[in-house]
Recover the amino acids of this structure.
């Protein structure tokens, strides 16, 4: 039969078949994921070798140093925590299939709210001012989140565009306050540089009679970054339990899967949308508060640093499991930091930040791509011999 | 392997699997030039899959397809177009905001600019040849279902289809429209085209086709000339043995009024009447069947009772609790209905889109009814897990684990999960819509038995069905819907299929006499 088929087109070289009802055992699935990760590492090494001629060993040594080496570890950890915090905030929204592209703006308004308290109520006691900052940040973030949710629930307005546009409003609010506050109180780029009012460190700092800072012994517990990370980890664990074990978490999952099923089960879809976006926005606001009080001590447009968008990838890639999110956050930030180190050391050879972005892109492509091969298999055309045998 | 000369299409050893399930196994069959072939088979017998391989949507796992005696590889719908194969799917693939002519031109690769007027001219020519009625400048969103189908056929012909596959073309048509479609198909046969229609309506098969090919459980059983066939022969070939519906039916014991529906009216999106002044009573301990051609208000009726449907003023559904109180259900949402203590269970038509959460496992789906049981903020899970395990054992649900997403289960198992959950909540009223659609005989009987057991327990069962044999064999009374009206309530023990079928299609006038 095969000799008559010369004129006809050959069957396709391969076609893609769903794995259907049979799921891959978990070790095979992880095998595919690790394989993809290894392939990405190799491809990255080849890419860097071709671009700047750095051999793979030096390349990965530099990457590791930039990400986890002495003096680089804390920046990686605290940046990962920031990314994780936003991803945790987005998880309930995206699990509900509410496309919240506005995390960037929600973080910014949270930061603005914190800074407003810092700026205008700097005479309050340290604990009171910090609590007040936190509360207004939560409210501001929640408000920024619930506005698009309200219009979605009432009039089915597209939330993607709405949340995206809310970002620009938030950015310009930041610019507005930046101009408004130019003066001695914001000297040296930080608010309350002299009094540290509203700074997280003001909780444990001691001052002498003249108001001068007494340098105490430094420990983990007098490190703002440490508390920054701890608080975010606590939020992440709480979110894990919220999504997995509570009634509200269950409702989010049902609404995300099918709003019709939710109605059938007596779940008010509108209420769930509003409630979940209040939560999502509030955690973004909390992130803004944490960054302002523990890290930047001021607001700037780059405060969220684009992580409002990167966090979407983190949340989806982790299938909304906050523990996986922590791992993915560290991975992405480590790549960024390592690549930044590469750019730093090999700039003269042509390795730029842009090249670093290419590497991160390759890595993400392979990780996301591996999920495809977990759900589908590729069947190749049988060789002509086999066909003849049939 | 020889291919007869006069074949338009020949399958040889074609096999297609989905996961471990064979959708088609070693199918070898011939389709001749210039004939109308009916492809007959029960739900899930692999008719559509086989035709999808012909139209390039699926690729066979093994075997070959021959067109005009030559082996071909159909890698995509585009390939199928080039080979002159056109398929009209059950769900139309049209762009709503485009006109008929624009839809016809979609995907056609021609050099130069789009020539809409030439396309319109070609459409008119095709319409004239075969007797279609279609306005090329009409937008799809203004079209009726039948017009959309016509457009799909014209689209296929415009692209030069010589082999035309129609998947369940009459499912959405009125009898008159069906007759018109058949006339057109006969015109196309006269023109030398090969027409394959997928269907499971025997009388249509006998009315329109030259030959009938039968699939059973993915395998090719054989073909028979229509002139030599009758309904009995076809049924036997289709199901393997003669169907003797042997559903147990006991007399209702001590029926008590449970649900009273009065003047229920529902309007559709366009303000048209979907349900008009529906009134009936449902008693505990009986199965009340609802018959009607598809889409004549069954869904809206059940959803109105369940609190999911907006109804018109004056509608009333009152529920008599076992302890003698009467509750009005209209104007309440499902949560309120539940909190009033109304034990209402509902197996909706759309199992995965409404009754179940496809992405969750059996446990998660049990939670749908139980998750609020605990007083704390935590969702209930222990009881749901036990219930899932119990249903899995008692109903024999085949699933790799209790947490495997139910979307991955077969249709019968999905239905067992849903019906099992709804029955487990100890309902006083149980509503089911197309409870056995897509299920094999064995699974169907499991469901009938479950419903009968509920009836014996004194549950009021509302059974919306499509198979008249089943309705007549299972139900104590049958309410026939026609065009949104109650067109009669008949006794299931004395009525006949013919009577119910007649009531489904011939609306009595307001005065109570029939239009003739």
């Amino acid at each position: 039969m095969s000799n008559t088929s010369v004129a006809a087109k050959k069957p396709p070289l391969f076609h893609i078949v769903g794995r259907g009802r049979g799921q891959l055992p978990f070790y095979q699935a992880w095998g595919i994921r690790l394989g993809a990760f290894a392939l990405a590492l190799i491809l990255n090494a080849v890419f860097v070798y071709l671009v700047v001629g750095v051999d793979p060993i030096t390349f990965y040594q530099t990457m590791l140093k930039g990400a986890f080496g002495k003096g680089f570890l804390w920046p990686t950890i605290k940046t990962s925590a920031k990314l994780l915090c936003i991803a945790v905030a987005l998880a309930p929204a995206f699990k509900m299939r509410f496309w919240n592209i506005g995390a960037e703006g929600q973080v910014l308004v949270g930061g603005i709210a914190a800074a407003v308290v810092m700026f205008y109520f700097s005479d309050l006691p340290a604990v009171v001012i910090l609590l007040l900052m936190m509360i207004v940040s939560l409210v501001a973030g929640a408000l920024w989140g619930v506005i698009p949710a309200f219009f979605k629930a009432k009039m089915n307005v597209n939330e993607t565009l709405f949340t995206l546009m809310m970002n620009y409003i938030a950015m310009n609010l930041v610019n507005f306050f930046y101009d408004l506050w130019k003066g001695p109180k914001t000297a040296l780029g930080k608010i309350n540089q002299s009094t540290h009012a509203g700074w997280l460190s003001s909780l444990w700092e001691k001052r002498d009679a003249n108001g001068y800072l007494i340098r105490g012994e430094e420990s983990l517990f007098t490190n703002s970054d440490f508390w920054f990370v701890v608080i975010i980890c606590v939020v992440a664990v709480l979110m894990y339990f919220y999504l997995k074990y509570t009634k509200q978490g269950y409702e989010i999952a049902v609404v995300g899967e099918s709003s019709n099923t939710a109605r059938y089960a007596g779940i008010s879809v509108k209420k769930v949308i509003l409630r979940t976006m209040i939560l999502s926005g509030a955690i973004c606001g909390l992130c803004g508060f944490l960054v302002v009080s523990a890290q930047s001590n001021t607001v700037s447009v780059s405060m969220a640093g684009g992580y409002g968008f990167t966090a979407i990838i983190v949340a989806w890639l982790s299938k909304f499991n906050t523990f996986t999110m922590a791992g993915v956050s560290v991975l992405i930030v480590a790549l960024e930091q390592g690549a930044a180190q590469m750019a730093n050391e090999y700039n003269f050879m042509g390795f730029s930040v842009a090249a670093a972005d290419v590497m991160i892109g390759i890595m993400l492509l392979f990780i996301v791509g591996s999920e495809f091969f977990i759900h589908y298999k590729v069947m190749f055309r049988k060789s002509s011999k086999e066909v003849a045998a049939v | 392997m020889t291919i007869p000369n006069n074949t338009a299409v020949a399958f040889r050893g074609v096999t297609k699997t989905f996961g471990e399930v064979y959708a088609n196994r070693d199918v070898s069959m011939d389709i001749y030039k210039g004939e109308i072939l009916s492809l007959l088979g029960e739900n899930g017998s692999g008719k559509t899959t086989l035709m999808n391989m012909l139209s390039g949507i699926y690729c066979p796992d093994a075997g070959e397809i021959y067109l005009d005696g030559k082996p071909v590889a159909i890698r995509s719908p585009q390939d199928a177009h080039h080979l002159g194969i056109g398929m009209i799917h059950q769900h139309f693939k049209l762009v709503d905001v485009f006109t008929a002519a624009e839809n016809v031109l979609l995907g056609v690769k021609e050099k130069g600019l789009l020539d809409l007027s030439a396309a319109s001219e070609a459409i008119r020519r095709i319409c004239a040849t075969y007797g279609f009625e279609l306005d090329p400048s009409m937008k799809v969103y203004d079209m009726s279902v039948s017009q959309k189908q016509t457009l799909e056929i014209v689209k296929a012909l415009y692209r030069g289809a010589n082999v035309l596959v129609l998947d369940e073309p009459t499912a959405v048509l009125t009898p008159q429209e069906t007759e018109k479609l058949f006339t057109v198909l006969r015109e196309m046969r006269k023109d030398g085209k090969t027409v394959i229609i997928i269907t499971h309506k025997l009388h249509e098969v006998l009315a329109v086709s030259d030959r009938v090919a039968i699939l059973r459980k993915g395998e090719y059983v054989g073909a028979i000339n229509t002139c030599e066939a009758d309904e009995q022969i076809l049924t036997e070939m289709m199901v393997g043995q003669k169907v003797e519906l042997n559903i147990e039916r006991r007399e209702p014991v001590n029926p008590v009024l449970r649900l009273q529906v009065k003047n229920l009216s529902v309007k559709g999106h366009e303000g048209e009447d979907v349900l008009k002044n529906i009134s009936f009573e449902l008693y505990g301990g009986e199965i009340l069947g609802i018959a009607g051609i598809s889409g004549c208000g069954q869904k809206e009726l059940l959803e109105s009772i369940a609190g999911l449907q907006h109804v018109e003023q004056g509608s009333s559904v009152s529920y008599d609790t076992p302890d003698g109180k009467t509750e009005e259900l209209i104007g309440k949402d499902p949560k309120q209905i539940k909190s009033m203590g109304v034990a209402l269970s509902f197996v909706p038509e759309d199992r995965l889109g409404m009754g179940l959460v496809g992405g969750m496992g059996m446990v998660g789906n049990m939670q749908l009814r139980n998750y609020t049981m605990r007083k704390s903020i935590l969702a209930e899970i222990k009881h749901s897990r036990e219930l899932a395990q119990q249903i899995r054992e008692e109903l024999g649900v085949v699933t790799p684990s209790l947490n495997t997403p139910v979307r991955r289960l077969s249709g019968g198992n999905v239905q067992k999960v849903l019906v099992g959950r709804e029955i487990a909540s100890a309902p006083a009223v149980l509503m089911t819509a197309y409870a056995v659609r897509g299920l094999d005989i064995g699974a169907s009987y499991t469901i009938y038995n479950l419903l009968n057991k509920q009836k014996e327990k004194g549950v009021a069962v509302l059974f919306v069905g499509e198979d008249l044999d089943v309705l007549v064999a299972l139900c104590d009374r049958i309410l026939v819907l026609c065009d949104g009206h109650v067109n009669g309530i008949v006794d299931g023990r004395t009525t006949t299929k013919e009577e119910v079928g007649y009531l489904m299609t011939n609306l009595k006038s307001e005065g109570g006499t029939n239009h003739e």
Remarks:
- The longest helix of chain B spans residues 175-190.
